[in-house]
Amino acid sequence: MLVTQGKAIRTHGGATIPTEKYIDGVSFSARAKEHIAEKKAIAREAVKFLNPGDNIFIDDSSTCLSMAEFIPYNKPLIITTTSLTAALEFNKCTKSTVFSLGGELHKTAHSCFGPITQNLLKSMYFKIAFLGFYSITSDGLITTNSVNDLEIKKLIIQHSEKTVALIDSSKIHEPRFFQLGTISEVDALVTDSGISEAFVDCCRENKVELIIANV
């Protein structure tokens, strides 16, 4: 049953729990193809936070990667990312300087993680961090299935003056395995109109700037 649901992978000796690339039965490449219109609309709103000369961090989430399509190529920015895909895309911005953080390379997400990445982040500070999350509950818990995601994003939030969460409404659901933080640690959140009134109230109560992208 778990195999047919994508929650386990059949082996010669039985079945195993899938690796991180198959969390919830969806690979990272497949995840990038979901909710495309919502992700683009969210990314279009996100770039409005940017001012010339800003020192920003952009993570490896598929929604954050969509920002590359909307950042003006002639806007001078300092962009840091753990994502090789994002680094190559943002490097097309002729006026921007791009830093690609090293570390252990994820096999499918094409982004770096681990102790080397964490040590690099500890020496850096950002004006704005744009982050995607596996899940935010309607009462404001930020959760993840990935220990690597947990450690990296905690550091980025600590080392950023402003944190902007970019999530489509499908990410607002039941908690995952690890708690990363709470919505009170986020300064602004960009999403689509599929969110619940309970989540709107949660953002208001925690003084989070909520931006609804027009899809």
Automatic annotation (TrEMBL):
A Pfam match: DeoRC
Domain DeoR-like transcriptional repressor C-terminal sensor: 35-193
Extent of the signal sequence: none
InterPro entries assigned to the protein according to its UniProt record, in alphabetical order: Carb_Metab_HTH_regulators (IPR050313), DeoR-like_C (IPR014036), NagB/RpiA_transferase-like (IPR037171)
Superkingdom of the source species: Bacteria
PANTHER family: AGA OPERON TRANSCRIPTIONAL REPRESSOR-RELATED, HTH-TYPE TRANSCRIPTIONAL REGULATOR SRLR-RELATED
Protein name, UniProt field: DeoR-like transcriptional repressor C-terminal sensor domain-containing protein
